[in-house]
Specification:
The chain starts with 8 loop residues before the first strand and ends with a helix. It has helices at about 20-30, 40-55, 65-75, 90-95, 100-105, 120-125, 155-170, 180-185, 190-195, 220-235, 240-255, 260-275, 300-310, 330-350; strands at about 10, 60, 80-85, 105-110, 135-145, 175, 200-205, 215-220, 290-295, 310-315, 315, 320-325. It is globular and about 60 Å long. It is of the alpha/beta class and about 350 residues long. The strands form 3 sheets. A 7-stranded mixed beta sheet has the order 2-8-7-6-5-3-4, with helices on both faces. Strands 9-12-11 form a 3-stranded antiparallel beta sheet, covered by helices on one side. The longest helix is centred in the C-terminal third of the chain and has 21 residues, at about 330-350. It contains 14 helices and 12 strands. The protein binds pyridoxal-5'-phosphate (PLP). Pyridoxal-5'-phosphate binds near residues 90, 143, 176 and 204.
């Protein structure tokens, strides 16, 4: 039992991960240059490696997933155009309306299934006719793994059910692949296979891959050249950024396979939660490193606060509580968290 005097078990997000000592060493020893001149060897290596691993021609290092999705959207969509997104997309809900604010791009939310995949027929119906009064549909966006969809990992055929619709209208597809390597490890296929149906993608280095900063946008050389201009417009040009990018290179070489441990821990968490009363619907099956529950006897915020008092941190909102496993959380932590959750849930059941 965590008494509150020990370090809390932090299941809020995989963004809380700390860089491993060897990653810090790689950063300290990174070769550097001026990246605005294209001369930072560490950034160039990261961009090339990211492109290779996602099966795209070129990569672009950016400060965050939000910046990656923004510059990709700006590269695909002109002002006054419209981008189709699933109604539970991170881009729609968690990225401060960046494309609307910066790019004058309107997001059109369409129905998605419980795992977050936009319904192909809803995408088809949302594509605008070309008559003069309509905004031009410029892009379709999908997410893999899907955050609000419980960390759902979509196979290439599942993704194609949506991207085929886009393609039939000549529309580019951007994949928010913040956790694409979680999807690849969960499905046992290369990330490149999962990214293949999309024209571009963003993935995060600062989540399960444990880097302090950074994401990479990948796509064709022509697209990346446009995205690079957009990155400069939003102030994202970097100089000796290789000191950060070196962490990304190290992560892509050493931190991808270990995501399987996070998935095993998340499954352990999901299985444990399934036998606890009062936690409501629990993500089932657990596909990657996330588990959601929906407390019945108190609000998600009250549940989160009760856990926090007992040394377990998690995220809550919209009636659900989210628990994320990551580097720095092991099976013992999961068991300890389950004990705490059970005591909170039991207390609530007996009080209610
Ligand atoms: C975290 C996340 C992002 C944004 O990444 P930041 O680096 O936090 O800006 C985008 N999409 C999804 C699905 C995410 O989970």
């Amino acid at each position: 039992m965590n008494t509150g005097t020990t370090k809390p078990i932090d299941l809020r997000s995989d963004t809380v991960t700390q860089p491993p000592p060897e990653m810090r060493r790689a950063m300290a020893e990174a070769e550097l240059g001026d990246d605005v001149y294209g001369e930072d060897p560490s950034i160039n290596r990261l961009e090339a490696l990211a492109a290779e691993m996602t099966g795209k021609e070129a990569g672009l290092y950016v400060s965050s997933g939000t910046m990656g999705n923004l510059v990709a959207g700006l590269a695909w969509c002109e002002r006054g155009s419209e981008a189709i997104v699933g109604d539970s997309a991170h881009l729609l809900i968690n990225e401060v309306a960046s494309l609307a604010f910066v790019g004058g791009v309107q997001l059109r939310a369409v129905a998605s299934d419980a795992r977050g995949l936009p319904r192909p027929e809803a995408v088809e119906a949302a594509v605008r006719p070309t008559a003069g009064m309509f905004p031009r549909t410029a892009m379709v966006e999908i997410e893999n793994t899907h955050n609000r969809g419980g960390g759902a990992a979509f196979s290439a055929p599942e993704t194609r059910s949506v991207t085929d619709v886009a393609r039939s209208h000549g529309l580019p597809v951007h994949m928010d692949g913040a956790r694409i390597f979680n999807a690849a490890i969960a499905l046992g296929v290369p990330a490149a296979d999962l990214a293949a149906p999309a024209d571009s993608l963003t993935f995060c280095l600062s989540k399960g891959l444990s880097c302090p900063v950074g994401s990479v946008v990948c796509g064709s050389a022509e697209f990346i050249a446009k995205a690079r201009r957009m990155r400069k417009i939003v102030g994202g040009g970097m100089r000796q950024g290789g000191v950060l990018a070196a962490a990304g290179v190290w992560a892509l070489e050493h931190m991808v396979e270990r995501l399987a441990e996070d998935h095993a821990n998340a499954r352990r968490l999901g299985e444990g939660l399934a036998s606890i009363q009062g936690v409501g619907d629990v993500t089932d099956p657990v596909e990657t490193n996330m588990v959601y529950l929906s407390p019945r006897t108190m609000s998600a915020e009250e549940f989160v606060a009760a856990l926090r008092e007992r040394g377990v941190l998690c995220g809550g909102g919209y009636g659900r509580v989210r628990l994320v496993t990551h580097y720095g959380v092991n099976a013992e932590d999961v068991d300890e968290a389950l004990d705490v959750i059970e005591s909170v849930a039991r207390g609530a059941v007996s009080a209610g």
